[in-house]
Each structure stands twice: as C-alpha cells, then as structure tokens.
Amino acid sequence: MLNPDNWTLLQGLLVFSLCAFVIAIAGTRITRIVDQLADRTGIGEAAAGAVLLGGTTSIGGSVLSVTAAWNGNAELAVSNALGGIAVQTFFLAVADMIYRRANLEHAAASAPNMMQNGLLILLLAVVLITPLLPDVTIWSVHPVTPILFIVYVYGIFLVQGVRNKPMWLPARTLETREDKPEDTSRMPAMIRLWIEFAFLFMVLGLAGWTLEPSATVIAAETGLTQTIVGVMLTAISTSIPELVTSIAAVRRGALTLAVGGIIGGNAFDTLFTAASDIAYRDGSIYHTMTEGVLLWVCLTIIMSAILMMGLIRRERSGPGRIGLESVLIIILYLSGVCLLLIRI
C-alpha cells in the first residue's frame, strides 16, 4: 500500500478521496484564521485573500504540480496548475449563487481585487505565449520562469499600494460590503493564529504531495490522459479549499476576502507552472503543453476578462438573481469540460 507503483485503481481512488477530504476540512478552518489575521495585521481582506488565503489554499495543488514535474509527468503538472484557475473562477460563480442579497461582483467590487484580476490575466498571457518562444533553457529552466515570479511579486506590491493609496473608489450602494476590521479584542492571540495557520499550511501541502501518485495511478488504470485527470480530477480536488473558503467567507460577510481569495489564488496558481518548470529536468515544461491545456488557458483568460468586466460594471441583479458574468463563466467552464471530453 505504501508503494504507489503497486496501487490498484481502488487504492488510488481511496487515497485520492481521503486527500480531497483532508483538503476540504483544512481549507474550511483556514478561512476564519486568515480573516482574523487580516484584521490583526491590518493588511486588509483583499491582500490577505491574495497572499495568505490564496497562497495557502493553493499549496496542495502547487506541491502536486511540482511533484508531478519532478517525476517527469509534465502533462499532469501543467494541466493541474492551469486547470485549477478555471475551476476556481467557476467556484466564484457558485459563491455568487450563495450570496442572495446582490451580485457578488457588485457587493465586493474593490480596486485591489480588480488589480489582482489584471495581474492574473497578465500572468496567464505570459504562460500562453511562452510555447511560441524559442525552446531555450538555462540549467533546464526557461527564461520566462523567473520573469513570472518577478511579475507576480511586483503585482502584489501594486495590489497593496492600491489598497493603501487608492486613486479612485467604487461607488457605494446599499448592497456594497466594505472591508471593515472586526473587534480584535475578542480574537485569539496573534501567535496562536500564526501557529494554527502554519499547521494548516503543512497539512494542505502534505495532502497535495500524497494526491499526485494517486492521480497518476487513476490516469494509468482508467486510460484517461493526464490532461483530463489534471483538469477534471486533481485541479478540482486541490481547488476544494477555494470553494469551501469562498462560501465560508460569503456566509461570514467577508465578501472582499471571498473574491480576493479566489482571484489571488488564481494569480498564485500561475506560479505552479513556473515552479514545475524548475522541477522538470527534461527541458522547458511550457513546450510540453498539449492543445488541450492551451485551450484551457485561453478559456481561463476569457473567464477572467469577463469577471473583470463584472467587477467594473457592478450589475446589482442578473438572471436567476446572480450576475450575468457568473452565468457566462458557468457556461464557459462547462463548455470547456465538454470540449476536453470530446477530444479524448
């Protein structure tokens, strides 16, 4: 049982399900911790969602992609990294269904969230264009990889700068939910919050590391391509924290944290590809991207652009009492799934 090479399909499915369950439980708990840290540290829900919540809930997927790349499973590594971004954007539409007072894009519109979304689109575009560039590597690492890290770090500084010194603010309405710190006197001590945060971080990382061999077994035993397994199984399972935390944040009234956690996590997820390129020893991992993965990247850019337009437009109520943008995101995601399955 301990050697993944000897696992049967049933054993692979059991390990996969157990890891997904652990990720869901840890992801639920960490939402409250990050919300309190946002108020304790004063960095705000948007920045906390991007850096703390987005990065932590994404650690399982990050470890999975890096492990897959190190083991030579480039297709699984890239499809998991980029497939997770699409499914997490889809989860934001699901959270919009939960919040019935108004469209989530209207209530949680903020300059930091829009800046994060612009950063995400930029990073995805860089990933998309890289396979068209020369297949040149330095110590098996493509030059675009460090560029992605630099752009991400610079983008996070811009997000924080927009929060601290905004040049403009969204118009306030009755449905707008602003990022207002809660009473910190009733919260646990800062050291306790950080310890619990670190523990949950390690739990999510360990679950992602264990998830990779089970996903490889499922792909081998079922005959599915690693792209299908990455987009449909590992990306969804490692993205469960984003679904759980966004719904939990909406129910807590932390709408900026909910949106910021999804968008921030998406931007962080683009670094999975960069980290996987470092772990992949057979050259540029970008040049191993299949047509299915490239299709998924294009679809994700379209979904992110629609979300950006929704945050700017701020429609109060749309079809089915959710935003029109959410409806389009749902349709695009389901259409992408159908296209991938048809291409099997």
SSE blueprint:
Blueprint: H1 9-41, H2 45-57, H3 59-70, H4 74-98, H5 104-107, H6 111-129, H7 144-164, H8 190-222, H9 226-238, H10 240-252, H11 255-279, H12 291-313, H13 324-342
Question: Largest beta sheet, briefly?
Answer: none
Count all strands and give the number: 0
Query: What letter string, H or E per element, gives the SSE order?
Result: HHHHHHHHHHHHH
Low-confidence stretches: none
Mean pLDDT: 79
For this structure, the quaternary state is single chain
Give me the secondary-structure category.
mainly alpha
Produce a short descriptive summary.
With 344 residues, the protein is mostly helical.
Task: Explain this structure.
This protein has 344 residues and is mostly helical. The protein has a single domain (4-342), classed as A middle domain of Talin 1 (Up-down Bundle), CATH 1.20.1420.30. Helices cover 74% and strands 0% of the residues. The chain is built from 13 helices and no strands. The chain has helices at residues 9-41, 45-57, 59-70, 74-98, 104-107, 111-129, 144-164, 190-222, 226-238, 240-252, 255-279, 291-313, 324-342. Helix 4 runs parallel beside helix 12. The longest helix is centred in the first third of the chain and has 33 residues, at 9-41. The radius of gyration is 19 Å and the shape is globular. The model has no long low-confidence stretch (mean pLDDT 79).
